[in-house]
Amino acid sequence: MTQTEPGALVRLRAANRRSVLRALAQDGACSRADLARRTGLSPTTISSLVRDLLSDGLLTQRPDCGTPHKGGSGRPPRMVALSMPAGGVAGIDIGHRHVRVAIADRTGTVLHEEERKIDADERGPRTLDVAVDLLDQSVASVDGFTLVGVGLCVPAPIDRRSARISTDIMPGWRGVVPVEDLASRINVPVMADNDANLGALAELHRGAGRGAHDFIYLKLASGLGAGLVIGRQVYKGSTGHAGEIGHVRVREHGAVCRCGNRGCLETEVSVPRLIELLQPAYDIALKPATVEQLERDGDPGVRRVLEEAGGAVGRVLADLCNTLNPSLVIIGGPFGRSAAIHRGLQAALDRYAQPDIAQAVDIVSGELGIEAQVRGAIDLAVAGVAHLRDAQL
Ligand SMILES: [Zn+2]
């Protein structure tokens, strides 16, 4: 009769603990049932591990979230999440036209936020000076706050091999490794990703994508990109460039795009382009908020332009839906709640996607709006810091 040596059982339990921590670092808060599915461990083992990790202070219980099981009692399952070591994190969202910084406590609750409008394309890596300035102001505004990690959001793909930002999209950032540049200035670990991926991550953890397994998050702003969530993971592609639908060619002899090609979707429907199209017909200077208000007031010109923009995006999205068969398309960015864009998108999906696929997909607004990127950066920092600690366990 063989007997399992006690050392082997201890090692197995330690490996199982790491599996649970890794799953939570990747996916954010999970129910125990989700953890069992993700790790392949039995529900009994998961219950026992979670009980130990809660009592060790490595996990916290979150009663406030989760989607009720279909056909269940209607009560959401209790979720567990990684707890952070003492101190908090920051999210830094660099857009083409802004820098937004938010600091958060160890549960991801935002404590303070700062924003400055700047041209990050023209200013290049000196944008990070502004980010550090806003970060210092934010940290100083909360008594006793200790920064232990930062998530950085940039408006262009980051190459997974070199960690450099794509200079096709941001030529002013040539040669910059944003993670290293920022980490050398602030002396804490920095994790980075692009705006569409982090918007998708935030909506997955705490927004419209909670409970969904496969969805497309669309960021329609100064640029246009998609974050692809497949099996509750953000899919980045082999080099980190997945989801660049803004650079699908839609007009043979169209305007020259910042990527160097002509007639990219982004040259037709970015927020600045839509405002440029509308502006000659109005006496007031148009901003995204003004356009939203005009749409709500029933302005026919605004409705027409936004509906056609939704149609142009939907034509490209229909092909992507045929490939991925998602259950949701989440629209983020300043016009994420535009009914006209939703109508245009829906009509294009109904016309161009395979009927069963079009029927299976719901088009919804992002719940986090323009906050999605900074919230995703915070989630990235929380997971990254927990992952570093996990590696030290
Ligand atoms: Zn392009």
UniProtKB/TrEMBL annotation:
Name of the protein in its database record: ROK family transcriptional regulator
PANTHER family: GLUCOKINASE, ROK (REPRESSOR, ORF, KINASE) FAMILY
Source superkingdom: Bacteria
Database matches in InterPro entries: ArsR-like_HTH, ATPase_NBD, ROK, ROK_cs, WH-like_DNA-bd_sf, WH_DNA-bd_sf
UniProt family annotation: Belongs to the ROK (NagC/XylR) family.
